[in-house]
TrEMBL record:
Belongs to the LysR transcriptional regulatory family. This is LysR family transcriptional regulator. Keywords: DNA-binding, Transcription, Transcription regulation. It comes from Paenibacillus oleatilyticus. It holds the Pfam family HTH_1. Residues 1-58 form the HTH lysR-type domain. PROSITE patterns: HTH_LYSR. It comes from the Bacteria.
Length: 294
């Protein structure tokens, strides 16, 4: 069935006038009439009959007009749904994130986003930097929010949101607690280390290389920063962590900073997406929101 002709018939049927239909559709009256005749020929049905200066629908015309009304109402609904999806007001958003943004930044960002885009289904995946970026590259996430200056694939675009200072923290009764010591002396202590692939681990190792110092002994290796800082609070080891991750523990006195003379290290918090691909409406709206909140 010729849907263009059906739409013209639908407009004529609603207005009960070829003249008004031609004005609505912005095509000539002869063109409207020709399309209706072609549709009648295609269907083998008489759809319209003259009535004075206007027209009326035959029984076949009434039947077709009712179903055409449903069809084009559905078309309008679909156009609205597509517009909402394109604008990021519906659909899905999948975010891969490392532990710092996942625990200390994304909860408030997601709450603000959902207040504005309630119909978007949002899923967050938490892992280390390597896992999060791999998820993004495998199209299992739309964006990734990463803490740490990890080297990413050239297939990814990176935009830094802000930089957080890195701190050394120890248990309250540690001999270096609250003091200023040299980096070489602190590195002689036993450390709690994050797992392979963690950007925090890579930043500490890079600091050791930059200072031409040996890497510290690893007493415990843990898969999450929350577990690591709680181990320090429980009385064991030295931890190198982003300030945002340990600040509350420091303020409560559960762990204590050690001030170390060393080249300043900052933890960049960045959002990543796939290079050369436009962000979806959902992802673009989220990136715009978080950019305005940092």
């Amino acid at each position: 069935m010729n849907l263009h002709a059906l739409k013209i018939f639908h407009t004529v049927a609603r207005s009960r006038s070829v003249t008004r239909a031609s004005e609505t559709l912005r095509i000539s009256q002869p063109a409207v009439t020709m399309q209706i005749r072609n549709l009648e020929k295609e269907l083998g049905l008489v759809l319209l009959a003259p009535k004075g200066r206007g027209i009326w629908l035959t029984e076949a015309g009434t039947f077709l007009a009712a179903h055409a009304e449903r069809l084009f109402a559905l078309e309008q609904e679909l156009e609205t749904l597509v517009d909402d999806y394109r604008a990021g007001r519906s659909g899905t958003l999948r975010i891969a994130a490392t532990y710092l943004p996942a625990n200390f930044l994304l909860p408030s960002w997601i709450a603000a986003y959902k207040q504005k885009f309630a119909e978007v289904r949002l899923t967050q995946y938490t892992g280390n930097a390597q896992q999060s970026l791999e998820r993004l590259e495998r199209y299992e996430a739309d964006i990734a929010v990463i803490g740490g200056g990890i080297s990413a694939s050239p297939r990814l675009t990176r935009s830094v949101l802000f930089e957080d200072p890195m701190w050394f923290v120890v248990p309250p009764d540690h001999s270096h607690a609250g003091k200023e010591v040299g980096l070489a002396d602190l590195l002689k202590e036993t450390f709690i280390m994050r797992e392979e692939g963690s950007s925090t681990r890579e930043m500490l190792l890079a600091l050791c290389r930059m200072s031409s110092l040996a890497t510290p002994d690893i007493g415990v290796e843990l898969g999450g920063m929350n577990e690591a800082v709680r181990a320090v609070a429980a009385g064991y080891g030295v931890l190198f962590a982003s300030a945002a991750e340990v600040r509350e523990f420091v303020e409560r006195g559960e762990v204590v900073r050690v001030r170390v003379k060393h080249p300043e290290v900052k933890n960049p918090i960045a959002v990543y997406w796939r290079e050369g691909e436009p962000l979806s409406g959902q992802a673009a709206a989220f990136v715009e929101l978080i950019t305005g909140r940092v």
